[in-house]
Amino acid sequence: MSKYNQIDLTGVRTISIKSRKSKVTPKDFAKSIDAGKASLGEFINSLPRILVGNELRDLVSDVIQSRRKGKPVILMMGAHVVKVGMSPIIIDLLRHGIVTHVAMNSASAIHDVETAMWGHTSEDVAVNLMDGTFGMSKETGDFINKALVKGFTESSDGYGETLAKKIIALKAPNRAVSILAECYDTGVPVTVHAAIGTDIVHQQPSMDGAATGELSFRDFKILVSSVKDLKNGGVVLNLGSAVILPEVFLKALTVARNLGFKAKGFSTANFDMIRQYRPQMNVVERPTQHGGRGYNFTGHHEIMIPLLAAMIKLESGR
């Protein structure tokens, strides 16, 4: 006989499943499609209307409604977005007037410049680190650092605009896939937010800390100017920046509110392969407290970003 007491379940009350409130019914299930005949719309409609399936639809609706009301859709991005080939998708959203501001970390700008100018990017870090040549591409460092010095001394342009103008002026062979150049062409602000010491161009002799810091600071103020319009609508999308952009966005938002702008009641969404602390707190939760909605989607950029863009274009008719 066991020395432990077992609870007697004979007095437990039960209810009928007919009266119980349930969250899932077959009408919400995924639908199979005819692979040879199904349209994009039919594929999207086949996705389950449960949990993230519904949240993704809600985010798409937020983006569309924000643009219809003239509210900002700010796209923040990490370097991996460029590395996995998403530039044409971002460019298409720019051309269709869906994205109104692009904010990138400086690694994103490096990959954009290398792709536009030389048609390849993303070195083998593990191999090149062994002999100290990682990040030592002279052309990359000279292009970016010298452009920043020129912008520092000769203009009031920020980091993103300075690089965009140089890509265009030099008639980069692959300009068509440059997010920087496309932003400039379409009149969409593009800002680059550097943390000195984090990028390969910072370790080269052409690096100028004053120029890099000043132009990134100018871009911070440009970002604040966009963030201030997030009032009763608007969307902030964070695509793959785990640290830099979530931190910069939170500061831009507090500056806007400090200056008296009612930047509240908007939506935010984080897209990344894993869930991390800063995007969760600084993008999804804190900015949308007391009004607004935050979303968090986990998945690979090369799948999630094209899916998001396709849904937006399909639903908006753009």
Folded structure, characterized:
- With 318 residues, the chain is α/β, with parallel strands linked by helices.
- It has one domain (38-316): Deoxyhypusine Synthase.
- The chain is 47% helix and 10% strand.
- It has 13 helices and 6 strands.
- The protein has helices at 40-46, 52-68, 80-83, 87-95, 106-118, 125-130, 138-154, 159-169, 179-186, 209-227, 244-258, 277-285, 301-316; strands spanning 73-77, 101-105, 190-193, 235-239, 267-272, 293-298.
- The protein has a 6-stranded parallel β-sheet, sandwiched between helices.
- Helix 11 (244-258) links the parallel strand 4 (235-239) and strand 5.
- Helix 10 (209-227) packs across helix 11.
Gist of the model:
With 318 residues, the protein is α/β, with parallel strands linked by helices. The protein has 13 helices and 6 strands. Strands 3-2-1-4-5-6 form a 6-stranded parallel sheet, with helices on both faces.
Structural key phrases:
Deoxyhypusine Synthase; 318 residues; alpha/beta; six-stranded parallel β-sheet; single chain
Low-confidence blocks of residues: none
CATH H-level homologous superfamily name: Deoxyhypusine synthase
| Integer count of domains | 1
Distance between the termini: 73 Å
Write the CATH architecture name: 3-Layer(aba) Sandwich
Secondary structure layout plus pairing:
Elements: H1 40-46, H2 52-68, E1 73-77, H3 80-83, H4 87-95, E2 101-105, H5 106-118, H6 125-130, H7 138-154, H8 159-169, H9 179-186, E3 190-193, H10 209-227, E4 235-239, H11 244-258, E5 267-272, H12 277-285, E6 293-298, H13 301-316
Parallel strand pairs: 1-2, 1-4, 2-3, 4-5, 5-6
Helix pairs in contact: 2-13, 4-9, 7-8, 7-10, 8-9, 10-11, 11-12
